[in-house]
Fold:
Amino acid sequence: MAPSRTLKVTMNDGNTIPVLGLGTYAPRSVPKSEGERATKVAIEVGFRHIDGAFLYENEKEVGQAIRAKIADGTVTREDIFYTGKLWNTFHRPELVRPSLEETLKSLQLDYIDLYIIHWPVSFKPGKKMFLTDENLKFISDTVDLRDTWEAMEKCKDAGLVKSIGVSNFNRRQLEMILNKPGLKYKPVCNQVECHPYLNQSKLLEFCKSKDIILVAYSSLGSHREAEWTDQKSPILLEDPVLGAIAKKHNRTPAQVILRYQIQRGVVVLAKSFTEKRIKENFEVFEFQLTLEDMKDIDGINKNLRYVIFDQFKEHPNYPFKDEY
Ligand code: NDP
Structure:
């Protein structure tokens, strides 16, 4: 049994979530088998939280990795925390459970630990992806997200998922769910882009006030090659302030970033399919940033979003027009 040094925090429904997770999104040019290999390495290294999605088209391979590591005795199913995401074409209430069941089938698991609404923008059913043939064209659907949420609650009641949450919701959209008449379960988390250049301090404060966990994605500055990122944006991992703090602690900028999030109460994801970096990213539990380091990192915030998703901009539920 591999030792797990991952800290966990308790969510508003009583379940726990490891504070550091492996991201499994990779650009389409990367073979899907890489997701399987990386997930195995990550579990061996000590990662217990795996962040996946229907959209990433590798849940089958990631599931294979998880099951292999259970089969060889490295972990038990209970040790693993898997997040899946409801894609935009499945917001209609009657499609929510079948979508989750498809994820379970791909993973070959009986339940997942967390299921989140991937984006607040609804697409008409049928258009599986937005980055392929119909590139940049979306067909918006008029779904009341509160109805989607009720269908998510039913999945939890049915035991298919332990916890439910959202992703890419702004404050207004979170409040819409929180104020829903007859709300049975609050979202446990809001997974959003968050890193020192977009530190989300206002959204974080709001989430904390509602006992909602903020989960950080693209925490290392995302993929330069990803379809949705601005190639001209500054490179987070090359920031001189982060570089100086890393040097002082004899760590790397990536480790400083991950540590920063953990110390400010954010659950943080890091994607790497490179063994050396997967290991490096897990080595963040044995050092601490000082208050001054934390303040210095707060100081480099630029409200810079790498993941813009221009394709969604005209959608009525596009989340990033509000301040936060
Ligand atoms: P990250 O910001 O985590 O960074 C990934 C990039 O950084 C990769 O190119 C990786 O390369 C590189 N990297 C990783 N570790 C290091 C290191 N120690 N030193 C130097 N470079 C490093 O990327 P993502 O945008 O993928 O975000 C993480 C995860 O969040 C996703 O994989 C996905 O699970 C989730 N996500 C969720 C979204 C949502 O809408 N809810 C949107 C976007 C992401 P390499 O692999 O070659 O090591």
About this structure: The pocket of NDP is lined by residues 23-25, 51, 118, 167-168, 191, 217-223, 237, 252, 254, 269-274, 277, 280-281, 307 (CB under 6 Å). The chain has a mean pLDDT of 93.
